[in-house]
Write a structure and sequence with these properties.
single chain; alpha/beta; Rossmann fold; 4-stranded parallel sheet; 6 helices; 38% helix; globular
């Protein structure tokens, strides 16, 4: 790791710590054009940090089921890991369905502790996710991006699927919007490649969200 020894990473759950311990070594595998796009997100957050203002990011996809939850979770974990304060991440969709259980399982395999706290008959269950014993838990459930559970003004909108990008040329209340797409792991649902595909997408998003917060950390 290339972190300043005076600012060691914040403690994560043990399995999750192992998952991210070499993640910076994977930054070089991110294509240059994607790195430049990710730096736009980092620049926005860095400006907020310099001003001492809170930063709120909503990660948006179509159904708030897979990619947007992965983006929300990994961006929050990365901010915590690098000791960046006053940063809160959210997620939403252009429609709401449910946080897909395959998404939850991929995050659990990565080392998060996640519990379903809803009734078994609930079509849109609520999950509580923990990534550190010293950090607040995260709530995961599907919602429209403009839901009252999300900020309404002065946030950064990160769109991670092309359908949502096309449906939301303007995100009301956002300071800035950036499209940074990921391939939908849904294509593998019900196939022998399902776990592998979700794990690959989970790792890709984790690596790129850590890249964002690493850039913010460097800019401090």
């Amino acid at each position: 790791m290339n972190l300043d020894v005076q600012n060691p990473p914040k403690p994560l759950l043990s399995k999750l710590k192992k998952y991210v311990q070499n993640i910076e070594n994977e930054f070089a595998s991110i294509p240059q054009e994607r790195q430049e796009n990710l730096k736009k997100i980092a620049q926005y957050i860095s400006e907020k940090q310099r001003k001492g203002e809170k930063t709120e990011v909503i990660v948006i996809c179509t159904h708030n089921s897979r990619r947007s939850h992965l983006g929300q979770v990994w961006l929050q974990i990365a901010a915590y890991y690098y000791g960046l304060e006053n940063i809160t991440t959210f997620s939403g969709g252009t429609d709401s369905t449910a946080c897909n259980p395959r998404t939850v399982k991929a995050l659990q395999r990565a080392g998060l502790s996640i519990k379903n706290i809803s009734e078994k008959t609930e079509k849109n269950p609520k999950y509580v996710a923990q990534y550190s014993e010293k950090a607040p838990e995260m709530w995961l459930f599907s919602k429209h991006y403009a839901s009252t559970a999300n900020p309404q003004l002065g946030f950064f909108a990160l769109l991670v699927c092309n359908t949502a990008d096309e449906a939301c040329p303007i995100v009301k209340g956002a300071d800035q919007r950036v499209y940074h797409g990921y391939e939908d792991p849904k294509r593998s649902d019900g196939t022998p490649q399902e776990d592998q595909t979700y794990d690959e997408r989970c790792r890709q998003i984790a690596t790129e969200m850590f890249f964002v917060m690493y850039e913010v950390k460097k800019n401090k």
